Amino acid sequence: MTQADKEQDNGKEKEKEREKEKEKEQQRGVKRPIAPPTIPEPLQEQIQSNFIVVIHPGSRTLRIGRATDTLPVTIPHVIARRHKQSGQTRHEDAWLLREGLNKAESNEQRQNGLKMVDQAIWSKKMSNGMRRTPVSAEQARAYNCQIRPAVLDTSSRVKWTNTSHQPPFLVGEEALYVNPSDCYNTHWPMVRGQLNMHTGPGGSLSATLADLETIWSHVIQKQLDIPLKDLKYYRCILLVPDIYNRQHIKEVVNMLLLNMGFSAIIVHQESVCATFGSGLSSACVVDVGDQKTSLCCVEDGVSHRNSRVCLAYGGSDVTRTFFWLLQRAGFPYRECQLANRLDCQLLQQLKETLCHLEQDISGLQDHEFQTRFPDAPALLYQVRLGDEKLQAPMGLFYPTTFGIVGQKMTILQYRSQGDCEDPYDEHYLLATQSKQDQSSKSAAERKAVSRAGGVLEGEMSNQGGVGELSGGSAVPGGMKSGEMEGGPAQGEGLMGAGGEGEEPLSAHLSRKSAIMNQLESKALGLDKAILHSIDCCASDETKRKMYSSILVVGGGLMFHGAQEFLLHRIINKMPPSFRRLVDNVEIITRPKDMDPRLISWKGGAVLACLDTTQEMWIHQREWQRFGVRMLRERAAFVW
User: Fold this and answer.
1) Residue 287, beta-bridge partner list
2) pLDDT band at residue 85, thresholds of 50, 70 and 90?
3) What is the Cα–Cα distance from 347 to 327, expressed in whole angstroms?
4) Residue among 627, 609, 621 at smallest CA distance from 264
5) Rounded mean pLDDT, 3-32
6) Where is the secretion signal located (predicted)?
7) Containing H/E element for 74?
8) Residue 338 gets which letter from DSSP?
């Protein structure tokens, strides 16, 4: 008999013994505990990354691709729609122009900002220890006014988009090259990270969502080769700004799941995805985009709510300021206009190739550029420039140079106004929490607002001069009552009345509102905003981590010398107490030699491959049944 046969016989004998024991127990009347029925564990569905589409919608650029793709499809986030009736008035969303530029104070503010920039340029020594010799615009102007273009070719070989077959819409580059005489309206469906809603044609919520759906569906079908009827087999990861509009996110998720037909979705924040894409566990993420600059401290995949701040300026404001400086220097292409989208494209290219933050490059230098427009010859221009190439990008640190008056320049995350689909939201939690919690939260908020008020006063005192604010301050974070990411409230939980001797609640609320309004009307420079964001972190240990890992992503700060320039300003402005604690302040602009514009999208692709994301998926049926409540339950951040 083999060993296997012996083991089999032993097993049968043991089974018989168990059955005999059961029979004896039943005869004796012994009650055995009833074993609960085994509940089968839900089978974890194996998700293939090539069936996950990652979407990163920017104000100027859309990045979209499968999670397995090395690089995403990148196109201008624009659509041209054909007029439905003949004789319809043509509408085109602005590219570089924005509200607040044509005020009476705009030019004076621009000039004051430029004086501060020039003072900062002169005060910083070059690497050889010498100070830069300032170059006046008149020196360059005298030369540039004499320049006439040279004809390279009688034909530019650039053509308008062919619309003879009257397509109902055109997307991306085709939309940019639609002839202005054709019957098309041009729309950019996103502006400064939010849906581009306005009172003009195509500015309603439904029209903006329809534009997004058309652009994304077109790219998925034509560029990713995915038939729209097959989207039911695909999942989607949507990257959203750190400071988001809840209603907009809800409508976009609704569109992706119910209109386009994705089977499931994950919504995650750009800053957290940027840390995933760069391989960092903790970082102060500085995302300088085309129209906004957002800052947030991320630790172990969690975005610190108090540290979030969004500045309503970006690369396009630098481009517009560069054009103003070029005009002062006698820009030889005199037909250039900010209302012309092809001229805007040329100015963007000139900014990217000529502008820098290198302190050692000084004096007048000669450059050349070409213009190639449809129905026009190809022309070659010579241009002589001095400090204009350095002054324009320094506007990010002195935003008064942008000349924007009467607009909110600092955006904060407000508490939800409530949603009928989500009854158990933070309002419910605030109303049902204990009075002790309410009282402590109220006291904490009073303390935070008084701290923010002190910071704001310090800011205002420095506004008129060249002097910089030094030292960290909890500007945006003070508004958020110091809550942690997992807390139920979102920053305005003043439910309980204060104790004796405390400021009355109504007076406190009005004071808080006034401080927030003042803060939102101010334009913080990029370096100050970084210091503020880091100082809003809860502990000194977290702040130390953030100073040693400042991650710059997006395409708005891709200038030569930007890394060293920003490092110098941060070290000079750091609170003295932290200079002793922080071993090494590090500015990371190209982690793993990656394009900083693609890092957040790449982080979304990494997110698709993580096992921990399994519980974050919101399925189509769940969304149909529970709606926006699923975002509160499944999102990796406090909704």
Assistant:
1) 294, 553
2) confident
3) 12
4) 621
5) 61
6) none
7) strand 73-76
8) T
Q: How many residues does the chain have?
A: 639
pLDDT tens digit sequence for 249-265: 999 999 999 999 999 99
Is pLDDT above 60 for 272?
yes
* Statement: residue 336 has pLDDT above 60: yes
Q: C-alpha dihedral over 487, 492, 495, 498, to 10 degrees? A: 110
User: What average pLDDT score do residues 282-308 get?
Assistant: 95
The token duo for 245 is 């509009």
The 8-class DSSP code of residue 236 comes to E
* Run of H or E residues at 56: strand 52-57
CB count in 10 Å sphere of residue 509: 15
Assigned token pair, 494: 């003043």
Q: Which DSSP string corresponds to 110-174?
A: HHHHHHHHHHHHHHSBPTTSPBP----HHHHHHHHTT--PEEEES-----PPP-TT--SEEETHH
- Helix H, strand E, coil C: the string for 174-202 is HHHCCCCCCCEEEECCEECCEECCCCCCC
Tell me the pairing of strands 235-240 and 52-57: parallel
- What is the rounded CA–CA span in Å between residue 588 and residue 595? 12
CB 161 within 8 A of CB 186: no
Query: Taking a C-beta distance cutoff of 8 angstroms, is the pair 522, 529 a contact?
Result: no
Strands 410-411 and 169-171, how do they pair? unpaired
With beta carbons less than 8 A apart as the criterion, state whether 157 and 379 touch: no
Average pLDDT, the chain: 84
Beta strands in 472-620 (DSSP E): 550-553, 587-588, 618-619
Distance CA 278, CA 606 (A): 10
Q: Which residue's structure tokens are 């002169």?
A: 122
Residue 435 to residues 52, 83, 428, 488, 608, Cα–Cα distance (Å):
46, 59, 14, 15, 42
pTM of the model: 0.83
Q: What percent of the chain has pLDDT over 70?
A: 80
What's the number of CA atoms in the CB half-sphere (13 Å) around residue 553? Answer: 30
All residues at 6 or more sequence positions from 401 whose CB lies less than 8 Å from its CB, including other chains: 110, 113, 114, 116, 117, 321, 391, 394, 395
Cα–Cα distance, 264 to 620 (Å, whole number):
6
Q: How far apart are CA 271 and CA 263, in angstroms?
A: 25
> Quick one: CA dihedral 350, 352, 357, 363, positive or negative?
negative
Q: Could you tell me which of 414, 509, 538, 519 has the C-alpha nearest to residue 458?
A: 519
Q: Which residue has the higher pLDDT, 368 or 48?
A: 368
Asked whether the predicted pLDDT for residue 20 surpasses 90, the reply is no
CA–CA distances in Å: residue 399 to residues 8, 109, 510, 564? 83, 10, 28, 20
End-to-end CA distance of the chain: 68
Paired strand residues for 411: 310
Residue carrying the six token digits 């302190």: 359
Q: 252 with 266: CB under 8 angstroms?
A: no
